[in-house]
Amino acid sequence: MSARKLLKGNLEKSKGLGLQLQKVGPRLEEINQRLPGLEVAVRLAAAVLKVFDAIGGHINKVVVPAAAVLKVFDAIHGLEKSLSDPQSDVHSC
Hints:
The chain is an all-alpha fold. The protein has one domain. The longest helix is centred in the middle third of the chain and has 81 residues, at 2-82. 0% of the residues are buried. The mean pLDDT is 85. It is rod-shaped and about 115 Å long. The protein has two helices and no strands.
């Protein structure tokens, strides 16, 4: 009698699990269909990160001189503002 009760309880649990699996099944199928696209996206992202890692040092080599050029341009532009108008000097002669 005890074994029968135990088997009946396990059967009920199995039926409950079966119903839950039926509900989850379509969602799992949808996830399974999306996986190949996600795999491609992850591989692409990893490749992009690899490229960024490879060019990181090169970017620093370019940015530092470019920043220096901008500083020189800024200094020259500042000097232009402080200089008087050359035509006004010509008229005063």
